[in-house]
Amino acid sequence: MILTVTLNTSIDKRYLVEKMNAGQVNRVSSCRYSAGGKGLNVSRAAVIAGESVIATGFAGGHNGALLEELAEKDGIRTEFVHAGGETRSCINIMDAETGIQTEFLEAGEAVPQEKIAELEQRYRDLLARAEVVTISGSTPKGMDDEIYVRLIQAARDCGIPVLLDTSGKLLQKSICARPALIKPNQDEIRQLTGKEELSEEELKETALYLRTKGITYVVVSLGKKGSLMAAPSGIYKAAVPKVEVKNTVGCGDSMLAGFAIGIKNRFEDEKLLRYASAIAAANAMQEKTGFFEKKDFEEIYEKIQITSVRNVAR
User: What are the residue boundaries of the Carbohydrate kinase PfkB domain, all occurrences included (predicted)?
Assistant: First the structure.
């Protein structure tokens, strides 16, 4: 079973407008609601791939009830802690004319300390059933920066690999807990190194350096150019074929789902990167976030090029 952790869950709303006009009334052509927060996107993609998933985190109020309903419709089993405030909403506005997407992300209401303690206990109980854990996204207002460190360490004590997808202080603090995988983009790598610009070679060196901290896999997104992965057997680069992009939101989460599935099933390094990259690209072909069609995945999987750019990781 894959256990996903999303502390800052949300109701994701995707608005399609024919043309976005700032400062004016904009009519929405269509609206799609989904159980959101990065870990819920991971959950949805993993379920589509045929995996058993339990999602935990915080849910509150009417939005929280809707979140659980939407998640369960997607085949995700939920074990949320019911916090006092309303689960936040996040809005993505897609301009059909330009293809530009604009996002409005609420911060998430503060969670009482007793509810944080309840979440940590529920998480420890769920670890008895988990084979791999993913921890994704931000935390609600007021939560301490060590929360992910504690969650990672609890899983490590049980011999369960943790895949972490976060940024800023949460990522910086959590590296010392040695998650099995981190997936920073180039902006997040810059934050970690303090450098404004990094060449591809410097990205490789940074990924290798992060592996020396006890992280098994370091994956760096290169955007349209694909991704780099520093792994036990070396460094690999994935080049993804051009696809008809409908929605890029959730591609990174779908990729994390692919890595979780691959690590759970002990894929070899090259297959692991190919599998995760194919799910991410297939997600981009769909309007729904954290969603893909298996036929798209299968077609893309065969076309992805994996190159070994360094045979033995240092």
Answer: 11-291
